[in-house]
Write a structure and sequence with these properties.
Blueprint (H helix, E strand, L loop, with lengths): L2 E3 L6 E3 L2 E3 L13 H13 L4 E3 L8 H10 L7 E6 L15 H15 L4 E6 L8 H14 L2 E7 L3 H13 L5 E7 L11 H8 L2 E5 L30 H17 L3 H10 L4 E5 L4 H8 L8 H11 L7 H12 L19
Parallel strand pairs: 3-4, 3-10, 4-5, 5-6, 6-7, 7-8, 8-9, 9-10
Antiparallel strand pairs: 1-2
Helix pairs in contact: 1-9, 2-3, 4-5, 5-6, 7-8, 7-10
Amino acid sequence: MRQVLLGNTGLRVSEIALGTMTFGTEWGYGVPAERARQIFDQYAELGGNFIDTAVNYTDGTSETLIGEFLRGQRERFVVATKFGYSTDQTTANAGGTHRRALRQAVDLSLRRLGLDYIDVLYLHFWDHHTPLDETVRALDDLVRSGRVLYTGISDCPAWVVARAQTLAEERGHSPFCVVQAPYSLLDRTPETELLPAADALGLTVAAFGVLGAGVLTGKYTESPGASGRLTTQGRALSERERTIAAAVADVAKRVGATPSQVATAWAMRHRNVVPVVGATSPGQIAEVVGAATLTLDDEALAVLAEVSAPPPAYPTAMLRWARPVFLGPTFANTRDARRPGVLPGQ
């Protein structure tokens, strides 16, 4: 894997991150410690250095295992964790994004990980009870203390991301460098607001769910039997999901790749997207990482774009036809050098 810069920073991370929500079996799924170590080592052998976890993953086992795996090689890896979920369901202030919960979560994560500092700390979700300026200032204090180096934001509306970043920039606090959100051929809604916001704000997009909970791997559609129509949660696949999965499989056959690689490479076509992928075996992580060397041609991209096209959404859909009307006939012939890769009229 190559390295990419994280947001508007000089921090270099691998172009595919390792998601570790499957490290531990406390939630009724996932992998035990020995298998988690094999996955971690395989990812590292393939050039990976970006590890993604959270204070609540598998009730803390994920962070604990990562701490064990990092011993003796901490400086090789960039460790990202998240705060916000309650660390004690019986205590009122053990969750949320206020200053006290933030401090408690960071203390706990550092102990479990066995680290002196966290490379990237995400605000895990929007806590609408806590003013954003309190959270942004508290995160800045952690950065200034050296216990956290960079900050990110996850699972928030685009306007919250934009306001948080603006508060940080205008008040001289440490700015965010990465936003995390689900993004896949099955769910392209971030293209309406979140991805453009990330581009404008200088944020990398750490995209989870790029395989659509396994639907895009083909494992639920390869079998003609009833079991091939259900996900592991027992949910029947929709007609749209089956159609997209079939298109991914067809493209994979044509380009000599696997469906997982095609789905991941599709997400990576956006210059700002770093997929966060999990695995239950070393073979799975090796397969997905193969997407780093896969370039989808125009034909493949066109097929996938058509079959997965999301429904028009306001205001993006309106602006596509309204801009030429509002701005005049020369609009379509204007090239904006400040927005490379954006076609006239978009």
